[in-house]
Amino acid sequence: MNSAIAFRNILFKDMKNYYLKPPNISWGLIFPFAWMGMLLIKSGSAFSISEVFPGIVALSILFGTTSMLSVTITFERKSRSFERLLLAPLKTELLILGKITGAILFGIFNSIIPVFLCACILKAPVNNWFLLAAGIMLLSITSTLLGLFISVAATEVFEAQTYSNFFRFPMIFLCGLFIPVTSLPLLLKPLSFILPVTYGVDILHYSISESNFLPPVIDLIILSVFSIVLFYFSIYNIRRKWIK
Amino acid sequence: METIIEVKNLKKSYDGIIAVNRIHFKVYRGEIFGFLGPNGAGKTTTINMLTGLARITEGQIFLRGKDVTHDIQSVQKIIGVVPDENNLYEELSGFDNLCFCGALYGMKKNDRERIARELLNLFGLKDAGRRKFSEYSRGMKRKLTFAAALMHEPEILFLDEPTTGIDVASVRHIRNLIRELNRKGATIFLTTHYIEEAERLCHRVAFIDRGKIITTDTVEKLLDANRDAHMVDFRFAPVSFDISQLTEKLHSRFPHISCVLRDPGTIRITSRQVTDIAPVVSFLASSGLLVQEARIIKPTLEEAFVKATGIEINLMKK
């Protein structure tokens, strides 16, 4: 059987059904503007554009991917259309890859606006474009997988939203977006180190202003490991919980 | 006859509840096999295990010789499933839903579009093909869900309550299609709580209750076992007193007949011998019941089911 056809159609169906809907596109456009406006206008000269650049990119990805994937999967499970996928002769890995790829692309799309605004309009310097792209991609993957992790736990759409916020809001303060990880109280540091977003943000910090706390290679390795572990852990959970 | 589905010692339990309790059965190629039982008997759980949507606690299932536990993807290639609830995408059109389902089985674009058009025609949905699934009526949704299961031309079809909750015309259409598909060679596993549907469609049936199979046989043989039974339904005018004790009194007075209260306005008597009904009507009248109608009932699968399971059909439909 040609699994590529199934994969492509799951991806295209999700893009058409969810990610390319006007409200979601406008979310991707408005969200970064709102955060930048809040940070730059309200804080006056407290932040420079280079300081807020990685944070805006990371938040745009994190909020876009975790929300969309957890809500769409929970919605499909609730309406039982996800059952169609489970009845198809597809490996669970391929099926889930089809579902998460749309969200990963949506995350990357969400990052384009802040990158364009900061680098091209506001002329923020970028130290390493390749690592910026790699950081955006890996951050999109891990954030999407966090969304998948949430969707396995949720049974209702409102639960998926609540769980997403439960994860995301503490992350904003713990993963070095606005407060450097090295400046966090000793008790909170271990929490920061178990969050994959911390390493994504660190790559962004390096690629934009070289204000990182770990070598970028280490960040890349840790993020890759996180991606693989989260993916297979979610697959394990899906088999355990959804095929009872 | 070639066995196409073989279930051995199948058990399913969750949260301490045994939903399916060590059942065995075989389905032969080209037959319509009915799986009958009341709600909660274990029908859907069994279908879920047969199709890979539920894990097996104990036992084995073989579909065309392939073990479902170890080779579910090979099995899923040859089966089509119409679940008890519609599970298509509300936002997609009927045509797109069918094409998407075909794509999940690796069908090429031209093939899936051709078959989707053919199925829309077959199910009388040609004009609704471009409309969103969410805009379909209940009957149309059921038909499209059925059509989606046929996209990849499966050898075995699992139909879980395919006609529940839809209009009479759609029911007739679906039943005719089931016969037509079977005539073309598809093996059909049908669960229903509509006994008359099973009687009209199935070659063999299994009665399941509380997770256990009570009996499995051909419809003919199950009917034969009840051919010597004589049944009459007495319908009477509404009364204000409790008549639940009346069946026992009736049985005491006429020991050769058995009586069942079918609904608050009907009593059914069954006898192995021809019985004069005049004394029965008199007895009912003396008990305060005004008999309005007496109707001879021909033995149906319903009686075989009641006899085998002890479950009254009106209770089953609740």
Structural features, described:
The complex is a heterodimer of chains A (about 240) and B (about 325). Chain A is mainly α and about 240 residues long. Chain A has one domain. Chain A contains ten helices and no strands. Chain A is globular and about 55 Å long. Chain B is α/β, with parallel strands linked by helices and about 325 residues long. Chain B is about 35% helix and about 30% strand. In chain B, the strands form three sheets. Chain B has a six-stranded mixed β-sheet with strand order 6-7-8-3-9-10, with helices on both faces. In chain B, helix 3 crosses helix 4 and helix 3 runs parallel beside helix 5. Classes of the chains: A mainly alpha (about 240), B alpha/beta (about 325).
| Secondary-structure-derived class of chain B | alpha/beta
Strand content of chain A: under 5%
Count of separate structural domains of chain A: 1
What is the overall silhouette of chain B? globular
Mean pLDDT of chain A: 87
Total count of domains of chain B? 2
